[in-house]
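S.,

Sequence below, as promised.
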Amino acid sequence: MTLKQLLKTSIPRTILILLVFLAYALSGTATTYFFKYITNDLSNGNWSGFAFWIVLELIISIFTILLLPLGTFLFNKQIQEYLHEIRAKIMKHYYAAEPTKVADMQNQLGNNLKVLSDDYATPWIKIWINLLNIIMAIGTLLTLHWSLILIVTVVTIIVLCLPQIMTKKLSSSTAKAAQKNAQFLNTIENWFSGLGELRRYGAGGRLAKALGQDNQKLTDANVNSNKMKSIAIAINGVGNSIGQVGTGLWAGLLFFRHIISLGDWAIAGSFASTIFNGLWEIISAITQIRSTKELRADVTKLIQPLPERKPKAAVYGLKCRNLEVQYQNGEIITYPDFTINQGDKVLLTGDSGTGKSTLFKVLLGKIEPQNGEVYFIDQAGNKLLPKQAELGYVAQDATLFPDTVANNITMFNQKLSYRLSGTVQNVQLASDIASFPQQIDTNVDLDQGNLSGGQRQKVVLARAEIYDKPFLLLDEATSAVDSKTTNKIISELLRTDKTVLLIAHNFSPDLMEKFDYQICLKAKKKEGK
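The prediction came back faster than expected:
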């Protein structure tokens, strides 16, 4: 996030915003300056002059009051449009990058962008308004007496030096608060994903404890951040008070020596207050902006375009040699050597914990093996690493989106619509679709769960079928489907020319015999070094 990019979001609107705030500063300065004539006419008993300046000041004050909300509204609209662009770029980054936890994405797209909006973008309004007010106030003081500017300059230097005391601590406390917010969101994701189980077993106390610990850390971090901001404001306030009182005293001395009029003394104090209040506002705004340095650096990384990935290649075979995978607890699981040739239909079996799903993660490039090698073979016989391989994959947990059943199958590729009819027949979904309110155009309701577990799995199987990848991985892809329907789905799949590697339990002996062969994993674990 940069000021330049913020202003470039809409250049015509930026020009209008600057002009509105310029008019606001000019009218505000005029209103204060006219108080000089009001005071002098009042002291001289000039009633008509006094009334004229009062009315004029009232008219300009009303105009001034209207300008500030207009300029603020336009600038806030600019901020929101800029944030919209940033969110779009961040979402593109997450789409193209390695998998990221949902809580981290929520923190970046929600909390961190709100912090940048409040503590980086919005403070520029204060800076621009107060900078204009200060320039005009200094110009006005010069018309009164040169020594007033000298006093203001000396105090200004002091005031400008004060914020350096807190800048580093304030930046650190803001970044820490953002970090603790990310941790809290991550905890919420981890625990609330199993909220039903916690309720079922009455484990609310453990939930409260887990959330309470991270919530307290977040609270402490926010309290510390606000504490640093309060200290910074207090330090800036000391300089502001010194400036206002000092200028007022000096202007009073000039009045008693008959160098300036009573009206000049009255507005000198007002313009001195404008200068030092403006400096205080500017310094506070700059302090806020500097506190977001680390967050802005993070966002800048996220909106940078990632290098284009090399296109993946279709694969037909697989080889595994001396493969070992190490878990985070140090335990190592070993796999037998095997080769899967083009068109083979292979059933992967084994007891729970023997590493079936872990093997799939290796094949999908999500886990790097500890030892050995595993690679795919393309149609020309070339080796391809897992991250280079284009695979069809169906997970046990079906991932659907809040759109039509048709779009969930084609994954929004309308060019594949002509294949829908045959595909839903192959995965035994046709009868289910016939019972849906709008058939294949029925919307999937993720909140109400209008599709059963088996229907969801059939939709994802249809998705893999319609994209027709030559090598297909299926991880318990029919676990929620009844045995009779499973038999039909798998039998249809095994009649294709695809290379299939399927994890399954409780298949009937007849169905198991339809596979070319089985790879049976056994518990072969050892402690890592």
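The radius of gyration is 35 Å.

Coffee later?
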